Amino acid sequence: MWVLWLMVAVLTGVAGTVAAQDETSTSRPQPTMKKAPPADAMLKLYPKAAINAKIGGEVIITCGWTANGRLKDCRALKEEPEGYGFADVTIRGFEAYTELQGMTGDSGPGEEKKFRYRWTIE
User: Fold this and answer.
1) Closest Cα to residue 8, out of 45, 44, 28, 33?
2) Which residues have C-beta within 8 Å of that of residue 1, sequence separation ≥ 6?
3) Which residues form the signal peptide (predicted)?
């Protein structure tokens, strides 16, 4: 029997260092995660080639947001290992299922949130 473990960690700020976050942030409050992608939905996105190879992965993405708390314009900053499609399915899952709270409008230039997602199969 296969067991799939999925983990989400949220990293705040924009791409770059914490100092860059302070320099590019506005006086607006930064949103926080209200709802993470559900494990059962992400399981359906697990790359078939990775399942067949019994391999996990890790992806770091960065995203903007909409005024209603949805993620937009996500892009991968890191994908390990490459070639299995982990970045694409992570972005698809996060844009479809993640909800943020505490925003005061759409993200502006330089306003992004980072997310790390680990795919593990045992």
Assistant:
1) 33
2) none
3) 1-20
pTM score, two decimals?
0.78
Amino acid of residue 107: S
Place of tokens 């997602």: 117
Q: Check: CATH 3.30.2420.10 for 4-121?
A: yes
What are the domain boundaries of the chain?
4-121
pLDDT tens figures, 63-86 = 999 999 999 999 999 999 999 999
The secondary structure of the chain as a DSSP string is ---EEEEEEEE-SSSS-HHHHHHH--SSPPPEEEEPPPHHHHHHHS-HHHHHTT--EEEEEEEEE-TTS-EEEEEEEEEESTTSSHHHHHHHHHHHH-EEES-SSS--TT--EEEEEEEEE-
